[in-house]
Design a protein that fits this description.
Layout lengths: L1 E7 L13 E6 L2 E7 L3 H7 L7 E5 L5 H4 L2 H10 L6 E5 L3 H9 L10 E5 L6 E3 L2 E7 L7 E7 L2 E4 L1 H6 L8 H5 L4 E3 L2 E3 L1 H4 E4 L3 E4 L7 H6 L5 E5 L16 H11 L3 E5 L10 H9 L5 E3 L4 E4 L7
Parallel strand pairs: 3-4, 4-5, 5-6, 14-15, 15-16, 16-17
Antiparallel strand pairs: 1-2, 1-18, 2-3, 7-8, 8-9, 9-14, 10-13, 11-12
Helix pairs in contact: 9-10
The protein binds zinc ion (ZN) (2 copies).
Length: 303
């Protein structure tokens, strides 16, 4: 199961309804955070998202709105008696900034924190998935991230039935790519086994409209993209994206669903709908991210 949560959906300054940037991917019970703005841990508590299950935090860039919740989260994990390590990844200087953060105040910690500077081309490999950073166009070193599940194989039930293979333990061999003997015939894996593409979720972080995002988000099930302002104001926000541009990216990358986030506080109290409408003119399957909103990732998998 791949679940995605938008946890904080404001930009720069929180509003009454929205806290600072944070998104979570829940993969088979393991929680990966993408950014950790102020307010993130409290929102996760409200939605019972299990802070202790967070294994890795991916920071898109070190602007305060994207990491200001990290210190509080680290402290809470300590208070809750965490023992397993926490991994923090991000663009160049992530090790340095994490080190500085951990040396602030009288700060006690009984578990390890490992920070790592990444570059595009790296892959953080977890159990059944990997996360890859990619460069975006922002005023400081900044990444987007691709979360991608490993491809897997499954047996086509209809074809198995036809061959009378349904309940056979030979299925395991076929899935492993070996041919088997069955009722005097040789069954090749290609006859019954199908590839199931892994699910893909992309979060772009803070960025202007960027070719690299279109390339890396290709075919994603969900693209979470910033849309700081409407297109009429984009010239004032050189390193950000308008709702229209986010939708163009989604359209060009051929994603399944676009989730807008990182709204300027000028779009509050329902005014966010303007951004939604602007985006939907270009890409119909667009939704607004909300704090605590959940999306299940269910791609078009062959039955
Ligand atoms: Zn930001
Ligand atoms: Zn920024």
């Amino acid at each position: 199961m791949v679940d995605v949560w938008t946890i904080g959906t404001s930009s720069a300054v929180p509003t009454r309804e929205r806290s600072l940037p944070c998104n979570m991917v829940n993969y088979e019970g393991e929680r990966l955070l993408f950014d950790c703005g102020e307010g993130a841990q409290r929102r996760m508590m409200m939605d019972k998202l299990g802070l202790m299950k967070i294994s890795r935090v991916f920071i898109t860039h070190w602007h305060a709105d994207h990491f200001s919740g990290l210190l509080g989260l680290i402290q809470t994990l300590e208070m809750e008696g965490r023992e397993k390590p926490l991994y923090i990844y991000g663009p160049p200087r992530t090790e340095e900034f994490t080190e500085r953060l951990l040396n602030l105040g009288y700060f006690q910690r009984n578990y390890d924190i490992f920070a790592e500077d990444l570059v595009e081309g790296d892959a953080i490999v977890g159990e059944g998935y990997e996360v890859r950073p990619f460069e975006v166009d922002h005023s400081v070193n900044a990444f987007g991230y691709v979360f991608e599940e490993e491809d897997s194989v499954k047996a086509n039930k209809e074809k198995m039935k036809e061959l009378g293979l349904e309940a056979s333990p030979k299925i395991g061999k076929l899935k492993a790519g070996e041919s088997v003997e069955w009722n005097g015939e040789t069954i090749e894996p290609e006859q019954v086994i199908e590839e199931v593409p892994g699910r893909k979720v992309v979060y772009a972080g803070d960025t202007a409209k960027c070719e690299n995002t279109i390339e890396k988000a290709e075919g994603a099930d969900i693209l979470i993209h910033e849309s700081t302002v409407g297109h009429d104001l984009i010239d004032e926000r050189r390193y950000h994206t308008s709702a229209k541009q986010a939708a163009e990216i989604a359209e060009e990358a051929g994603v399944g669903k676009l989730v807008l986030t990182h709204f300027s506080r000028r779009y509050r109290g329902g005014k966010e709908q303007e951004l939604l409408e602007e985006a939907r003119e270009v890409f119909e399957n667009t939704v607004l991210g909300e704090d605590g909103k959940h999306f299940e990732v269910s791609p078009n998998r062959p039955e």
